Amino acid sequence: MFIPFAGYLGSCAASMAGYFACQACTCVSREVLTQSARVAWSALFFVAMVTAWILRDFAKPLLEKIPWIIKDATGELDEKWFGQQAVYRVSMGSFLFFATMSATMIGIKYKRDSRDKYLHHGNWLLKLGIWLAFTALPFLLPNNIVDAYAWAARFGSGIFLVIQMVILLDFVQSWNDSWVASAEEDEQWYYALLGVTVAAYAGSLTVAGLMFHWFKPSGLDCSFNVLLITLALLLCVVFSVLSLIPSVTANRGSIFPASVISLYCMYLCFSALQSEPKDYQCNGLAQQLTAASGTTLASGMIITLISVIYAAFRAGSNTRLFTLDGSLDGGDSAPERAALLAEAEEGTSAGLDGIAPEAQAINRHIELRSTMEDEFAPITYNYSFFHLIFALASMYIAMLMTGWGSQAQDLDHIDVGWASVLVKTGAQWVTSLLYCWTLMAPALFPDRDFS
Questions:
Q1: Which of 6, 167, 222, 242 has its CA 20 to 30 Å from the CA of residue 293?
Q2: DSSP secondary-structure letter at 110?
Q3: What is the per-residue pLDDT for 10?
Q4: How far apart are CA 23 and CA 17, in angstroms?
Q5: Are 83 and 411 in contact (CB under 8 A)?
Q6: Transmembrane ranges (predicted)?
């Protein structure tokens, strides 16, 4: 009798331990979602993009059963067409969801706003259900509406890339300013700047050498590839020369940002050449990777998705670049909070005079002031802009997975095709123009503040 009874107690103890463990995990997960909404939103965005990736390869059996999609289709209905339609529709649902959230979050300045608590940081099961509804909605729409969204996504993706470039330029300049400021107290930081600068230039030359090796096979006329590589090297020279001009150096010009931007532009050139069709004879790298396994392909896609999420996360958090006054809450939060706190103080004093002892009145006044300061604490980033960035990133993923809408996109690869080559080359030149403008603008317009 004792052994069964002991076994029963052990089973009950194990069940109770499991129950409490589940409750603890639930509480911890709820606390994480409440306190770190940006991580949760990034996870939801990642789920949306993985869903698009899966349907891109396996959507044909599903879409063939939807009559209004098949009925309005034109041209040959091969697996590529079905894959593109699935990606466009999932991307459209994600875009509509995040765009709606962005519009809903307009005007939030303080953490006491109910939209902060119930929409941005809370009710995740409800928001998951709404996201599922938004994801399913585009599958009920006719093809012409989805095709119109696909064209709009081209422009939205361009805006996302430009924002990403502005964030990069600001990051590099802030990095330089931070290390230069630290070097005023410890000259070791100057050696660190020199080391990173030399490494960046060495990396640029290394990438250039690899591109000449892989994308200019011997015996073949690959003048287009040679032109792109040569122009990228010339841009690096232009960046370096501009950063050394005395009038530019006096306005935050430095060789360190020039070296980092040079390395990034060389990377964009390499990425553009890598996106050339796999059967193109001048894409020597593709010829060497023809035997790439499915695991390698999956890893490449996941890394691409994670990089897009990181870009959207960083851009959504860095709204200082996209506000006129450099503040997140419109610039009037401090006076407004001061007025409200002064009003609360007057009301507290008036309500306590002659009613409570002086010590009790002071304690209540301190508690009330602390409560109001918490309620009127400004938000740490712009929620509306944060969701807008994810909406634009949803468009960018649609272009990334379909080769910017190219009918020649191969389902066995991602971001491959001449459209991708042109887009990345354009991104390289836009980045170059933006950086050159940041160098020359202070010298051309000395009366304006470009800080």
A1: 222
A2: B
A3: 39
A4: 10
A5: yes
A6: 6-27, 39-55, 86-108, 124-142, 148-169, 190-215, 227-248, 255-273, 293-313, 385-406, 426-445
Give the model confidence (pLDDT) of 281-333 as tens digits.
Answer: 888 877 666 544 445 556 656 766 676 677 666 665 565 555 544 444 444 44
Q: Residue 180: its pLDDT value, please?
A: 84
**Within 10 A of 352 (CB to CB), how many other CB atoms are there?**
16
DSSP 320: G
Tokens 């990606």 locate to: 87
Q: For the chain, which ranges sit under pLDDT 70?
A: 1-35, 72-76, 249-253, 287-301, 303-305, 307-308, 311-376, 406-415, 449-451
**The dihedral of CA 181, 182, 183, 186: what is its sign?**
positive
Which residues are CB-neighbours of 224 under 8 A, at least 6 positions away?
282
Task: Confirm if 418 and 278 have CB atoms less than 8 A apart.
Answer: no
CA distances 137 to 145, 149, 197, Å, are 12, 13, 50
Residue carrying structure tokens 């390869």: 57
Question: Rounded to an integer, what distance in angstroms lies between the CA atom of residue 384 and that of residue 92?
Answer: 19
CA atoms of 251 and 245, how far apart (whole Å) = 10
Dump strand ranges (E) for 238-329. none
pTM metric for this prediction: 0.74
Cβ atoms 232, 265 nearer than 8 A: yes
Compute the distance between CA of residue 329 and CA of residue 363 in angstroms, rounded to an integer: 31
pLDDT value for 15? 45
Per-residue pLDDT at 132: 94
Q: Which residue's entry shows tokens 């360190």?
A: 256
Residue 392 has which token pair?
A: 């634009």
**332 Cβ contact partners less than 8 Å away, ≥ 6 residues apart:** none
Residue 109 Cα to chain centre, angstroms: 22
DSSP states of 344-365:
HHHHHHHHHTTTS-HHHHHHHH
For residue 411, what pLDDT is reported? 59
